From TrEMBL:
Key words of the record: Cytoplasm, Methyltransferase, rRNA processing, S-adenosyl-L-methionine, Transferase
Enzyme Commission code(s) on record: 2.1.1.198
Gene Ontology biological process terms in this record: methylation
Protein name from the UniProt record: Ribosomal RNA small subunit methyltransferase I
Signal sequence segment: none
Phylogenetic classification of the source organism: Bacteria, Pseudomonadati, Bacteroidota, Flavobacteriia, Flavobacteriales
GO molecular function: methyltransferase activity
Domain of life: Bacteria
A Pfam family this chain is assigned to: TP_methylase
Gene giving rise to this polypeptide: rsmI
Summary of the function given for this chain in its UniProt record: Catalyzes the 2'-O-methylation of the ribose of cytidine 1402 (C1402) in 16S rRNA.
Length: 236
């Protein structure tokens, strides 16, 4: 029986690549990459010559059966995404689940992912948090906000740059203008920055300075006393 390795890759700074990740990518029989053009540059930088196949959200259902057959025959396969840890808002869950269902060993290496440094950088409570990833585009977006409106844990969202201002305006609408928000942009890269403040303050910042790059938004949870007061008001 073969083995599937889930291998995180840098979200920006190539120095975040681990020695173990490089070794695994050199030793496996096949690398599955979200975008072979993007990953090709990474592999070239670290002098990794292992053969690559494309594995992304548009073809993963079609390729699963063949990959399971290869793993069952004894091959070792590594899965990487364009950046960060596969299966975190990237392809990877379906293959991992199918391996588990077929008693194929899965080994996820520790490594880079965007939401952890964004959470720690935020200065918001991180003993308990909820990772929401990307919000629904249209259908279900409002429903998700309403479900999270009284969430007391810190919330983490992935946001594309052209939707950040809209999303921050929605934070003001659904969570309140005074809710604590931290937006981290271009983590580990040259122009990395984190903007902290109330939802309204952060919204005004990015209205004046349109954002670029990869973005993680961290939102403080509703204070317990505020939630309690709302519940009391509803009961009256």
């Amino acid at each position: 029986m073969g083995k599937l390795f889930i291998v995180p890759t840098p979200i920006g700074n190539l120095e975040d690549m681990t020695f173990r990740a490089i070794r695994v990518l050199k030793e496996v029989d096949l690398i599955l990459a979200e975008d072979t053009r993007t990953s090709g540059k990474l592999l070239k930088h670290f002098e990794i010559s292992t053969h690559m196949h494309s594995h992304h959200m548009h073809n993963e259902h079609k390729t699963i059966a063949n990959l399971i057959t290869r793993l069952q025959s004894g091959e070792t396969i590594a899965l990487i995404s364009d950046a960060g840890t596969p299966a975190i808002s990237d392809p990877g869950f379906l293959l991992t689940r199918t391996c588990v269902e077929n008693n194929i060993e899965v080994d996820c290496l520790p490594g880079a992912t965007a939401f952890v440094p964004a959470l720690v950088n935020s200065g918001l409570p991180n003993d308990k948090f909820v990772f929401e990833g990307f919000l629904p585009e249209k259908k279900g977006r409002q429903t998700r906000y309403l479900a999270l409106a009284e969430e007391t844990r810190t919330m983490i969202f992935y946001v594309s740059p052209h939707k950040l201002v809209k999303t921050l305006a929605e934070f003001v609408q659904y969570f309140g203008a005074d809710r604590a928000v931290s937006v981290s942009r271009e983590l580990s890269k040259l122009h990395e920055e984190t903007i902290r403040g109330t939802a309204e303050e952060v919204l005004k910042h990015f209205e004046a300075k349109p954002p670029k790059g990869e973005i993680v938004a961290v939102v403080g949870g509703m204070l317990a006393e505020t939630k309690s007061k709302r519940q009391e008001a509803r009961e009256v």
